[in-house]
């Protein structure tokens, strides 16, 4: 079996590679990544890519056929992957996340790939109502990143058939320790603030809802999607997480303060409402994937982050200006004339 993971050298990819190597020890496992964040290693004993059979460096906007030939499954993690990057690079976000993702799926199908897994996002729901969002809820993407996920799902659906199974995993907000840690995610940011300055500042009024999922449980879900029963249907878009991980932002901060002593939490009570707020119903994923349900809870994940950052000797109160922020990595490469304005290597 040949499995290709696109975007494997980011935050999520190392865990996916490790999980797939465990599940498919004899598979030919291949990574394909442009390498923007390859050097952003955190608290590792070995290069995560050593578990691959091959690592290719390349842009998802230009994938050679030989990479896809003979593959049975493709996992697409490649993306301009958060709202700040999407705001600064809106056209590139839509090109990489949507246009190139669809081109990849079409070419994979033409070359005989049977299974395609797309890392989608619950951010496409946009604004909360009293009821938790189900897969049938109205989509209301508020950012370029969220719009790119909606467009991609819409254009993937017609490609699915009995010979080409597509699974769109609408992930909750990622969190937790990774060999390529990001701190531009809400829970990770709060733990970093708690350790470096003993002060968590919530820029909103703390009321927005966020569903979360540990990055290792994202890998577990991708493992399920590759091997899922085809009887579910040739196309599936499913909220991926657990109902127990729907939290308000202020609850996340309080949980961090309960694990890390002496931390002060400040809330901006005068802030305008944050429209990016949504609770999500994960009952369909619970029904379809009973043996691949999230294993990590909030407090365990906070402790994992705390221990990982402490192992790194982390104490940088100015971490938002460091390589632990993905937008900072890209702008630094651009400042050095190593990346062009459309995020291509010079």
Total beta strands: 12
In the CATH classification, which architecture of the domain at 2-176 and 212-243 and 276-295 and 326-335 applies? 3-Layer(aba) Sandwich
CATH first level of the domain at 2-176 and 212-243 and 276-295 and 326-335: which class? Alpha Beta
Approximately how much beta-strand content do the residues carry? Answer: 15-25%
End-to-end Cα distance: 35 Å
Q: Which class best fits the helix and strand makeup? A: alpha/beta
> What general form does the structure show?
globular
Strand adjacency order, main sheet: 3-2-1-4-5-6-10
Number of helices: 11
Oligomer: single chain
- Low-pLDDT parts are none
* Mean pLDDT metric: 95
Order of helices and strands: EHEEHEHHEHEEHEEHEEHEHHH
> Quick one: CATH superfamily of the domain at 2-176 and 212-243 and 276-295 and 326-335?
NAD(P)-binding Rossmann-like Domain
* Radius of gyration over all CA atoms, rounded: 19 Å
Record the SSE blueprint.
Elements: E1 2-6, H1 13-23, E2 28-33, E3 54-57, H2 65-68, E4 73-76, H3 83-88, H4 90-110, E5 115-121, H5 144-156, E6 165-171, E7 173-175, H6 186-197, E8 199-202, E9 209-214, H7 215-227, E10 235-240, E11 246-248, H8 249-259, E12 264-267, H9 283-288, H10 298-311, H11 326-335
Helix pairs in contact: 1-7, 4-5, 6-8, 6-10, 8-10
